[in-house]
């Protein structure tokens, strides 16, 4: 992975994690998903990022990329990921990835069965949106700070 930024590396974070999220930039905008309006899920009706829970013994990268495919129908490879960071929350480990792809990839999106809709949103809008999932706003800020530091 060229220019890959890995924060908080460690075998414990790679082998024992609960889930993964992906900040996917298509051109200059972020792909976001409007969560379902259901009482049995966290953050109903909020703007979310692609990702979800780990299945089996998959790696953090495989988890994020599988969820992206399930939710938006896009297939990326691990080499497309440019940032990775493990976060500890509630005694569990969660991974956050970022990838920057050409805007034309949005034409290939096939929305999956989870969520109400998807759209492309400027990062600044997501960061200030009252209906964005707060912990992903914070993680996106971390990524933007780290990526600006190396560019």
List the helices and strands and how they pair.
Blueprint: E1 5-7, H1 11-15, E2 19-26, E3 29-34, E4 47-48, E5 51-53, H2 60-72, E6 81-89, E7 92-101, E8 117-122, H3 123-128, H4 134-150
Parallel strand pairs: 1-6, 2-7
Antiparallel strand pairs: 2-3, 2-5, 3-4, 3-8, 6-7
How would you explain this protein's 3D organization?
- The protein has 151 residues and is of the alpha+beta class.
- 27% of the residues lie in helices and 31% in strands.
- The chain contains four helices and eight strands.
- The chain has helices spanning 11-15, 60-72, 123-128, 134-150; strands spanning 5-7, 19-26, 29-34, 47-48, 51-53, 81-89, 92-101, 117-122.
- Strands 1, 2, 3, 4, 5, 6, 7 and 8 form an eight-stranded mixed β-sheet that branches.
- The longest helix is centred in the last third of the chain and has 17 residues, at 134-150.
């Amino acid at each position: 992975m060229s220019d890959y930024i890995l924060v908080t590396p460690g075998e414990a974070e790679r082998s024992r994690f609960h889930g993964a999220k992906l900040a996917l930039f298509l051109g200059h905008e972020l792909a976001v998903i409007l969560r379902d309006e259901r009482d049995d899920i966290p953050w109903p009706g909020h703007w979310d990022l692609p990702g979800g829970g780990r299945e089996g013994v998959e790696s953090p990268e495989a988890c994020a990329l599988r969820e992206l495919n399930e939710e938006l129908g896009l297939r990326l490879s691990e080499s497309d990921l440019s940032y990775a960071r493990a976060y500890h929350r509630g005694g569990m480990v969660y991974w956050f990835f970022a990838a920057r792809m050409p805007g034309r990839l949005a034409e290939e999106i096939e929305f999956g069965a989870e969520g109400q809709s998807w759209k492309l949103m400027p990062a600044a809008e997501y960061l200030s949106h009252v209906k964005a999932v707060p912990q992903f706003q914070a993680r996106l800020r971390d990524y933007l700070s780290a990526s600006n530091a190396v560019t």
